[in-house]
Design goal:
- The protein is an alpha+beta fold.
- The protein folds into two domains: 64 residues, Winged helix-like DNA-binding domain superfamily/Winged helix DNA-binding domain (Arc Repressor Mutant, subunit A), CATH 1.10.10; 157 residues, Chorismate lyase-like (Chorismate lyase), CATH 3.40.1410.10.
- The chain is 27% helix and 33% strand.
- The strands form three sheets. The protein has a six-stranded antiparallel sheet with strand order 4-5-6-9-8-7. A two-stranded antiparallel sheet has the order 1-2. The protein has a two-stranded parallel ribbon with strand order 3-10.
- The mean pLDDT is 88.
């Protein structure tokens, strides 16, 4: 564990520790469930007062990044996330479970429509379909990688801020009400090199691959989703 501490900075040292640990967790340097240096070890290694280290660790625990286990030490918080596949909003599910949701947008654009897009969204195979790819986090820990492919009427959503709630955008900009997630399929897969890097796991780690379709109140497809879930961090309910 390495911390970048600048004692000449005007930023308080405890705040620098907090920022370093948060970035380390989000970048995958500190893996979920891994043990952190103790307060005494940081004090001795970096010449920082134990009171300062304790203040930083306390804030990180309050923010949900670390957890202290009696007699064992301080660890990066591991996520055990239970998600009902029919739930429309990941953000709402997170908050109900006591986690803070966040997203990191990877890419957006247009790609060639497939037979799935023709079946689920009414876009002729060979045409262009708007898509986005992003990582979903619970308390800063990645729990799934999702790719959404949008029906023609919703294609301009890719120009919105998709690190925010997609469903809130659909409600406010497109007037979507009473949407439902339907037509689920679940398969076992393994992470390729890019997926492993994004999800901060080893290449060929097992994944739960879920395909579903969000439909509006008239039964028309809004988007189809391909979601890659980490089986050691989430439980799926159908």
């Amino acid at each position: 564990m390495e911390l970048s501490i600048d004692k000449s900075s005007q930023i308080p040292i405890y705040a620098q520790i907090v920022d370093c640990v948060k970035r380390g967790i989000e970048d995958g340097q500190f893996q979920p469930g891994s043990k952190m240096l103790s307060e005494t070890e940081i004090q001795n290694q970096y010449g920082i007062s134990r009171v300062t280290v304790r203040k930083a660790y306390t804030e990180l625990m309050e923010d949900g990044y670390l957890v202290r286990k009696q007699g064992k030490g301080t660890f990066v918080k591991d996520i055990h996330f239970q998600e009902n596949l029919s739930a429309v909003s990941f953000s709402d599910t997170c908050r109900k479970l006591g986690f803070e949701p966040s997203s990191k947008l990877i890419r957006t654009g247009f790609t060639g429509a497939t037979k799935l897009d023709e079946r689920d969204l009414g876009i002729s195979a060979g045409g262009q379909v708007a898509f986005m790819e992003r990582i979903r986090f619970a308390d800063g820990v990645p729990v799934r990688l999702e790719r959404n492919y949008y029906a023609e009427a919703y294609r301009d959503i890719i120009y919105e801020d998709l690190e925010k709630s997609v469903h809130k955008i659909l409600q406010e900009k497109y007037g979507l009400s009473n949407p439902r997630k339907l037509d689920f399929t679940i398969a076992i897969g393994y992470a390729n090199e890019e997926e492993a890097k994004l999800l901060q796991i080893e290449k060929k780690s097992p994944l739960l691959k879920v395909h579903g379709v969000l439909k509006n109140s008239r039964g028309q497809g809004v988007y189809r989703s391909e979601m890659l879930h980490l089986p050691d961090r989430c439980v799926l309910a159908v």
